[in-house]
Every structure is written in structure tokens, then in C-alpha cells.
Amino acid sequence: MNQHPYLRAYMAGIAVPTMMLLVILSAFLIARYVFQIPIPIERAIVFPMALVPNIFGAWNIFYLWLRPRPHLPIGFHGAILPFLLAPAGLALASCSGFLSTTSSGLLWFSAVAVPYALLAIGFPLALIAYYLVWKYLVGFFNAVLGIA
Questions:
Q1: Could you give the CA distance from residue 21 to residue 49 in angstroms, rounded to a whole number?
Q2: CA-to-CA separations, 94 to 32, 87, 122, in angstroms, rounded
Q3: Helix/strand/coil (H/E/C) assignment for every residue in the chain
Q4: Domain that holds residue 45
Q5: For the segment 4-21, what is each residue's pLDDT rounded down to a tens digit?
Q6: Which of 50, 123, 43, 121 lies closest to 81 in space, CA to CA?
Q7: In the predicted model, is pLDDT for residue 37 greater than 80?
């Protein structure tokens, strides 16, 4: 099964974020319709639904491409991804007008305030989560598809 390794790497990469989008979409729907938080779902979910799975797939292709050369283990390779996704997401959200910065934190949709302290705690947790997701889930899908 040595045919199309980059296609298989792409498919293994997009599997995890595609499944997680169902969880994220459910959280947005509950927040908007149950707790009446005024979040325009159609504007907020575009970045994760359109780009994140494709970026995961491309990042996994990049990991496969690096394999003959000295490279990081897959968990550390995946933990680098938030350093690319966070600035891109923040830039896209601020350019779209639903994220603004204040002196105390970020203001999301002019309704949800996120203090900088929470971001300082959340980013290392995101790094840990990405490490674990890439090490165990994406690594598992790579092994199943025969590219690990």
C-alpha cells in the first residue's frame, strides 16, 4: 500500500479536526439558542470549518515529506501548529470585525470578553492538546493508513 502517500497523509490529517467540528458546532448552537449568547454562528464558524481541517491535512503532508530527513516526533510537530493557527485566526477575526482588542483582553462579537490572563493560560493548554491530538490521534490514523 505505497500508492498516494500524500493523499493518505492528507486524509489522516483532516480526520480529527473534521470530527471535532461537530463538537464545536454543537457548542455554538447551545450557546446561541439555549443560553441566548448573541454569537453570529455563520461568521464565526467559517474559519474553523473551511481552513483548519485543510491546514491539518497539509501539516500532516509536510510531516510525511520531512520523514526522510531529521525531524521532530509527530506530537511536537503538531504542537507547532497553534503558533501558526492562532495568529492567522486572530488576524482573520479582527479583519472581519468580530474580534477587537481592549486594555483588559479580547472582545469577541462585542459580547464576550476574554481576559488576557485566560489567553495566557489557554495557549499552553492548547499546545498540550495539540501535542496529544497529534501524537495519539493523527499518529493512529497515519498508522492505520500505512504512512507512519
A1: 7
A2: 21, 10, 19
A3: CCCCHHHHHHHHHHHHHHHHHHHHHHHHHHHHHHCCCCCCHHHHCHHHHHCHHHHHHHHHHHHHHHCCCCCCCHHHHHHCHHHHHHHHHHHHHHHHCCEEECCCEEEECCCEEEEHHHHHHHHHHHHHHHHHHHHHHHHHHHHHCCCC
A4: 5-144
A5: 899 999 999 999 999 988
A6: 123
A7: no
> pTM of the full predicted structure?
0.83
Among candidate residues 124, 125, 102, 127, the one with its CA nearest the CA of residue 113: 102
Instruction: Return the higher-pLDDT residue of 45 and 146.
Output: 146
How many domains, the chain? Answer: 1
pLDDT at position 100 is 86
